[in-house]
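#onboarding

Welcome to the new folks! Below is a worked example of what a typical request in this channel looks like: someone posts a single protein sequence, and someone else replies with the predicted structure as tokens. Don't worry about understanding the tokens yet, we'll cover that in week two.

Example request:
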Amino acid sequence: MLPAPTTRLRFREMTEADLPDIAILELGGSRGPEAWIAWNRQNYAEHGFGLWVIETLTGDFVGDCGLTMQEVEGEWLVEVGWHVRTSERRRGYAAEAAAAVRDAARDRGVKHLIAIIRPDNVASQGVATKIGLTLEREVHKHGGPARIFGADLHPADRAR
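Example response:
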């Protein structure tokens, strides 16, 4: 279930060959780059999605973006997540990739999409807003405060 390419980006599954590129991303959390790749490969097998490598149409590594299952206050939700290498930030790549992922999630039947973002990560909050997510609540997640942005992708279904 790869998202469709955008005007500047394409998506592909992560492989062990991506280790040097994944190692330069600021991933946060406790997973090293090898574990990050293994986790995403497991997600592809179990869920049909994970974080995919995003690269320019000419093959330059930009970062990762995709979907993961996340537990939030006892409920499992589909999260859109992204990481863009420092040298490629502030070019609109995160919002472009996240919008394509949001559309792929909607087309796959995901009813509600979230993004889990630290309160001090203003740039990612801007990306979430650009793709139509709004602040739903604040929680404690991954060892600290987090904001949950979300949106119904099929609002008519929720009303029934």
